[in-house]
Amino acid sequence: MQNKNKVLLALVLAGCFFTSGCTAAKADATVVEEKPNVVTGTVECKEVYIRAKIPGYLTNIPVVEGQEISKGDLLFSSDQRDILVKQTQATGTLNAAKAVMEKAQANVSLLETEYAKYQELFELEAVAEDTMDKLKTQLEAAKLDVQAATSQYQAAQGVISEVNLNLSQTAQYAPCNGTVTMVSSSVGELVGSGTTIVTLTDYDDRWINANVDEYEVGKLAIGQTVPLTSKTYPDKVFHGKIVNVSKNPDFAIKKSTNELNDQDVITYKVKIALSGEDDIMLYPGMLVSVNLDEVGEAQ
Question: 254 vs 133, which has greater pLDDT?
Answer without folding.
Answer: 133
